Amino acid sequence: MQLIGRTMSPFVRRVAATLNLYGYTYENLPFATATQGAEISRFNPVGRVPALVTDSGESIVDSAAIIDWLDHQVGAARALTPLAGPERFAVTKCLALALGAVEKAVQATYEKDRRPADKVWPENVDKLLAQARGGFEALEAQLTGEWLVLGRMTQADVTTGIALDSAEMFNKPAYEGRLPKLQALRDRLNAIPAIGSTGFKG
Ligand SMILES: N[C@@H](CCC(=O)N[C@@H](CS)C(=O)NCC(=O)O)C(=O)O
Fold it and tell me: Does residue 102 line the site of ligand 1, with CB under 6 A?
């Protein structure tokens, strides 16, 4: 399989970590969204990462669709998101918050760094960061035990840890002193080689 995109993207990274946790080997094609849009569009007509090219040559786009496909490949006993029932909803509820928060964190970075200086709208950067913090703070409030839900590591934990890593990589001061429990969870997750090894290294 081929994973398209750099693990600097939290969406790519959560797919990379999930592939590792499920024991798949894959080739990473680390195309950059800012400079290699044409290459990325060969795999995803929407021009975004990640895309996953399966062994049969099919390209699946969007981290949620890719991870759902992988979950069904490994089956209910190993899937990090339960395939059905109330347990699935418990995980997808957290995923919506984590993905929403990190989408806002990414948008804040695009707003700041991808526009000509005179076209940056600082109030919008602040709004986007406040939205990102809102999502992470809701997850912080929910974390009362070792894991977010179901008393075991699920995709909710994997994605939340990766989302927080990315948000802090983009803008550490924005989250300082607000998320101690999530930061501890993230550190424990990064100690798992399948997850920690996917961290962006430049
Ligand atoms: N919902 C998508 C979001 C993917 C996404 O926004 N990827 C960003 C990289 S972090 C991207 O490709 N941005 C380039 C663009 O939108 O032009 C997913 O989960 O895969």
Answer: no
